Fold:
Amino acid sequence: MKKITIAAAVLIAGTAVTAFAHGGATGIVKERMDAMLAMGKAIKTVAPMMRGETAYDAETVGDAARLFQQHAGESMTKLFPEGTGGMPSEAKDEVWTDWDRFATLASQLEEYSEGLERAADNGLGGMGGNTSTDGASMMGGGSMMGSDTTMMGGGGMMDAAAIAEMPAAAAFAMTTQVCSACHERFRAEED
Structure:
């Protein structure tokens, strides 16, 4: 549960900052900021369900997952052509200097959000409320998104079919962990 709360809080706070930063953005930079803002709003809608604070609604979770898919993978990477960094963009130079990792995260978001969409009908599976949704412990230890020796960095990525078998709360946690991993590595922090 703590991982969902932390990931959601980081993404929600980022959404507020992003909305403010949009003031000077134009063109493709604004397009990608708008996409990130839309995904952040979807997370803000779904996170309370995953924490057991609001009623679970599989249709809303599925809608959020489809929105993530719409903005993930190649749809995301095409919004980051070289030369589009710098203010007002929040993208770090690492997007372009570590393109393979960035593209992998974009693809992973697409795959995981497809799994989340398929898992939406599974419900929370007893994972809402105060119960932990630590995806890493479900998968046999270690952070899935953190270091280069984990599932995210050095090992294989789970596919949508495997994620579809999980409770929606676990699938949501995995999906938002991809967002957090990408933001941590590739998004500039506000001063």
Remarks:
- Residues 6 and 132 are 12 Å apart (CA to CA).
- Residues 16-21, 128-155 have pLDDT under 50 and may be disordered.
- Residues 27-50 form the longest helix (24 residues).
